[in-house]
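Folds abound. Consider this:
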Amino acid sequence: MKNDIIRAMEELNEELLFHTIREALQQGKTVYDIQNNLNLGLELVGKKYETGEYYIADLIVAGELIKQTLKIEGMSFHTLNDRKYLGKVAVGTVFEDIHDVGKDIFISMLNSAGFETIDLGVDVSAEKFVQVIKEEKPDIIGISGVLSMMGANIKRIIDCIDESNLRSQVKIIVGGASVNNKLFEYVGADSFTMDASEGVNICKSWMGIQ
């Protein structure tokens, strides 16, 4: 079953993926086990993209498949009220950027690792990030930016958090195709990554998990 889910995700085979997930749930597999297998499949999708076998469109399809799997009955993390989370992470794509594939993959992997997540969506204003810190009190803020000109917008969000006297309350990680070491230093985040798996490990380290 594990190999079927990984293979279906890797091949972007929607029919096979949904069938094997439902079958796994019927056999008593946990949401976390299934999510881990989905993430392994996503890693293979990412590798195919890196080698040129898959394209941006395939990454978008992968992101949409992940969204759809969470709608399958029994796959919602929110139904598990007794879950003890590692921490709370709020993630959103910077304002004036509507890309969500990387954000969705990161959130999926955070869920799999045991974090509680808040998906702020795309084109998220600085004020919205400030609001979620005040109301939801996350441990970590994740800011995604794909477009190359998003550096100033990411910095505006972090500056707004700082101006609201909330900067000391959260760790901030930035990620996406537009992010590099130079931009990271410019915006004033705590860390950056272009790899969702690495990003999860950074978040775990902040919560004292090795």
Q: What stands out?
A: The first strand starts at residue 88 and ends at 94. The longest helix spans residues 31-50.
